[in-house]
Amino acid sequence: MAHAHAVTPVAPPPAGGSATRKPTAPPRTARGLGLALLGLAPIGFLVVFFAWPVLAIVGRGFAAGGLGVVLGDPRTWQLAGFTVATAAASTLVAVVAGLPVAFLLARVRLPGVGLARTLVLVPFVLPTVVVGLAFRALWPDGGVLPIVLANAFFNVAVVARTVAGLWARLDGRTTDAARALGASPWRAFRSVTLPALAPAIASAAAVVFLFCATSFGVVLILGGARYRTLETEIYLRTVDLLDLSGAAALSLIQFTAVVAALVVGGLARRRKDGARIGSGRAGWPSGGEWWVVGAAGVVLALLLTPIVALLVESVSTADGWSLAGFRALTSTGEKGALQVSGWDAALNSLKVAIDATLLAMVVGVLASVVLVALRRSPAKAARGLGETMDAVLMLPLGVSAVTVGFGYLVTLDALPGDLRTSPYLVPLAQALVIIPLIVRMVLPVLRSVDVRLRQAASTLGASPLRVWREIDLPLTLRPLVAAAGFGFVVALGEFGATSFLARPTAPTLPVAVATLMARPGELNNQMAYAACALLMLVTVLAVALIDRLGAARGRVGEF
């Protein structure tokens, strides 16, 4: 837009100079101040809605003097041992199953690879109650094996897509050189490719272990009263026994394991950033590569098995095939199992998930912008601050959702309006869960924007906000929409914190499913499976949209 200005005489430019004065970039102090103000929003959100509630509930527990008692109880360490053992076993299964799929996604050009890319992501964003009931359809009595397999089922995508993201960019000439010197395909993989992939594998394994160690819905449904992890024991002690000191001690043990996993993942990412990349290429498999492709096909088929079992169970009754469970969603279930109808619970889930996604997108995008600026700073202290902030943003994934939820009830009455009775209490808790995932999706996209474009705009006098609006936003709009869709489906299926905070008169669909499964009656069971089928359908459609937008290609799950 043209602007009218008063014309004033100016001195002629010096010889050889330009007649037009170049706008200068904003002073470094102003840029630093703007960056600090942007960083205050995500940090302030985490302090108020994560650190404060968690520290409050842990402090109350420690004040009761039960820390020493709990830490000295052999059953505590049995719980910790069982948690670590099952998480480690699930991580191993996920890594072994994910590597062939990573090869398929990164190095193979065959019809159907795009569909495989979408399929492998579906389990990762399925609600935990859906996966729990799907494996319960296969193992009605539950047990340790279905817990291990269900947690691995969730996390194959993390391994496959994280490793594929690096594998697709590895320089293939080193492997070709090894083959030219007489190495067999297996030896070339073992001595050249595998060491190059090790940082990505370690990073993915650390995140998978974190997710498995804090798994809640799967263990609650498949473990029952026989098998408990730290997460379900924290829930039991907080909700049923009101043992805050015991829950606080267990949270401390869990938090220690989470920090260790984050440190390992951070070190692995740092090594991965320095991995040698080159002209990675995908092509038609040859020789022994067909065995790897076949293994990937078996893994994908196994991933479909629980999903098919759940769909079959949703239309199965003692009298044969029936859609009674789907029709019953218009009611409150057998003998009034719910206080609202199934469809009301579904609509409430949509509303809560939309609110949580909008909040998480604002916080997550701001945090990503700050992280990009800090990582590109020439100052070593700024880069170190960026790495610390990145790790802190991941903490909500590893802290017990029950601890966070109970902390809300303890602390949020001190804020104006008493958020404990607010309809935004559940969206706040869900936003905490999906903010780290959104950051992990948005951050690589922002880092890929050519910094020279930003510098040119700044040199021409554009403010940081205008640079973001005119440079970053057009280049990242589609990935941002994909990140929002990803966050939406994760929020839609969130169960841990929601099960603790949602009111009976306004349950989300996953909470309604858990309530139905706890009530007797075949119709309640059918309603639960029908609701899970609907959640799964929404998840599949959303994942297909994410991949269509292209933001998730080689990036989703890249923790």
Automatic annotation (TrEMBL):
CDD domains recorded: TM_PBP2 (cd06261)
Domain ABC transmembrane type-1: 80-263, 346-547
Topology class, membrane: Multi-pass membrane protein
Keyword Transmembrane helix: yes
InterPro entries reported in the protein's UniProt record: MetI-like, MetI-like_sf
Principal location listed in the UniProt entry: membrane
TM segment ranges: 35-59, 79-106, 118-138, 144-164, 196-224, 244-268, 289-312, 352-372, 392-412, 424-446, 480-502, 527-546
Protein location: Cell inner membrane; Cell membrane
Residue segments, region Disordered: 1-27
Source domain of life: Bacteria
Pfam families in the cross-refs: BPD_transp_1
Keyword vocabulary terms for this entry: Cell inner membrane, Cell membrane, Membrane, Transmembrane, Transmembrane helix, Transport
Record-level GO cellular component terms: plasma membrane
GO biological process: transmembrane transport
Entry similarity comment: Belongs to the binding-protein-dependent transport system permease family.
Protein's name according to its UniProt entry: Thiamine transport system permease protein
Species of origin: Amycolatopsis australiensis
